[in-house]
Amino acid sequence: MRLADLPSVFVTATDTEAGKTWTACRILSAWKARNFSITACKPVASGGFWQNGALVSEDALLLAAVTGQRPEAVNPFVFEKPASPHIADIQGAFDPAACLAHIRQLQAGSQRLLVEGVGGWCVPLSADMMLADFVQATGLPVLLVVPVRLGCINHALLSAAQIQRDGCCLLGWYANRIDPAFEDFEANIEAIDRRIGVPRIYD
Q: Is 42 a catalytic residue?
């Protein structure tokens, strides 16, 4: 399956700085080239910065640049502290019910919806909600982004196993080449492909 062929999807990764947003933008652009109406949502972001008097997420700006949405429509909850959301959300502002309602509204108004997670898979969004709980509530299948580098085999297999253990549908995985000089790129991809049990998604 290619990126353009994906249904509406939740994009997660093996870790932070894995290339989720870069991959998400590629998916959105591929859908756009197929003339689908598209929307994106990054429910929670941390490490936001101030721009024109508003706290914004760089990831949301990148997603919005592809979809044409307002950044605040892409990212309803953004926190300034660069930390796990349950730590960065000092005021306890995250409202999962409101966030899920927003996602359903976006999904109803477009042919393809992409929702991007925060950090890796086992991330707490609040004191009593894990990312997996939120993804289950959306009902979306999951795409796992794997940054191909030393250690990625272990991280990919553990993440895939946990996604499935959490009762979510793992649609496939995407190999993100973050280091062109990494000489064992193909060998790592082959090792993951042989063991992960779901298809690799191609450009």
A: yes
